[in-house]
Design goal:
The protein has a three-stranded antiparallel sheet. The chain is mainly α. A hairpin with a 5-residue loop joins strand 1 (117-121) and strand 2 (127-130). The chain starts with a helix and ends in a 22-residue tail after the last helix. It has helices at residues 3-10, 21-28, 36-43, 48-65, 71-89, 94-114, 132-143, 163-173, and strands spanning 117-121, 127-130, 149-152.
Length: 195
């Protein structure tokens, strides 16, 4: 798939129009294989801050769908979110942008194609194997009153996070205080009452 085909799939005329939540969800949830090079052609022409915010929002929505008892997959998805937003926030140079696209491609492959979640219908006991993407869709439907399932994400937890990317994510998360006044930055005066 080349850039023109990707834009057509996303119903965009040009890369600069990639600025909405739906654009990102259509990209990572698509059944199409999208090479990292094509992702680079797209994201090298988008607004970094906008895309980082979209990724942040997408993962927040995804994390809301995770069943309450599935803390391991919740933590993993949270780390992937930090990795991708951190990489995009610091992708000022070609090499960093390529790294972001490779990591995004790896996430898409895992999320929509390679992962296997065992989903067991609580009423019938019938089990089916779904990707993380589809299992979370099932969990969303369950919250809307559809069939209830037990989820086993344990086979999906072997996801190799890029240590360099995680360091970048940490740097991107560090914000400068807006004020030099300690009281504006969360410090509280320790007052002693006069007796």
């Amino acid at each position: 798939m080349d850039l023109e085909e990707l834009l057509e799939m996303l119903e965009l005329d040009e890369p600069q129009e990639f600025e909405y939540f739906e654009n990102f969800s259509d990209l990572v949830e698509s059944e199409e294989e999208i090479p990292a090079g094509t992702l680079y052609d797209l994201f090298s022409q988008t607004d970094q801050d906008t895309v980082a915010e979209i990724i942040d929002n997408y993962f927040d929505d995804t994390l809301d769908a995770v069943p309450d008892d599935q803390t391991d997959i919740y933590m993993l998805l949270g780390n992937i979110k930090r990795e991708l937003t951190g990489l995009m926030s610091t992708a000022d140079e070609e090499e960093q942008m390529r790294r972001f696209c490779e990591e995004l491609n790896k996430f898409k492959q895992w999320y929509s194609f390679e992962s296997e979640v065992a989903c067991t219908d609580r009423e019938t006991g019938k089990e089916k194997e779904l990707t993380v993407r589809d299992a979370l869709t099932l969990a969303r439907l369950e919250k809307l009153g559809h069939e209830e399932y037990d989820y086993d994400f344990s086979d999906c937890l072997e996801y190799d996070l890029d240590e360099y990317a995680m360091d970048l994510a940490g740097l991107a998360a560090e914000e400068e205080p807006e004020s030099d006044d300690p009281l504006d930055n969360g410090f509280v005066l320790d007052r002693q009452d006069d007796e």
